[in-house]
Design a protein that fits this description.
The chain is mainly β and 149 residues long. The protein has one helix at 81-87; strands at residues 6-11, 14-19, 23-25, 38-43, 50-55, 62-66, 95-102, 112-122, 127-130, 141-143. Interacts with translational regulator CsrA and flagellin(s).
């Protein structure tokens, strides 16, 4: 039997056709959403720093995320041995770092990156984890300068 190469899912941003090689497995789920394990990254717009980390089986479950290094240079993330094993890391360069983004309703000027719980994704193994940072010297949020329209 031939393996399914694409799946069509419903999302808050419409119907999406997802290649199965773009599915990311989160064995432990995400903080507060431990029962959801399969996600994909959706591009909102070309050249936008923001993506949606979309659940493959819950249409209304999607997180706005961004690469924090698009906004700041110094954001130390240390992968502990348990996360390294879960991610199946062979080369640390294969691990992408994402953070959730909060845009308060009607107040886009208060958009913030949540730096306290980075999401790590191994691009090769397509496995991910979310790990809380314990370094008290790292700020928990970074407010972005986004103009309201």
């Amino acid at each position: 039997m031939e393996e399914q190469k694409e799946i069509v899912i419903e999302t808050r941003i419409g119907t999406q056709s997802i290649s199965m090689d773009k599915v990311i497995e989160f064995p432990r789920g995400l903080l507060g959403f431990e029962d959801h394990h399969s996600f994909t990254l959706l591009q909102l717009r070309d050249a936008s720093p923001f993506l949606v980390l979309q659940s493959m089986d819950a249409p209304n479950l999607g997180f706005l995320v961004a690469d924090p290094y698009s906004f700041i240079d110094d954001y130390p993330v240390i992968i502990n041995s348990a996360d390294e094993e879960t991610l199946q890391v062979e080369d640390p360069a294969d691990v992408a770092v994402l953070v959730t983004v909060t845009i308060p309703h009607g107040r886009p000027e208060n958009t913030a990156l949540n730096l306290s719980g980075p999401i790590l994704v191994n691009r090769k193994s397509r496995r991910g984890v979310q790990t809380p940072l314990t370094d008290r010297n790292v700020p928990t949020q970074l407010y972005l300068n986004i103009e309201g329209k």
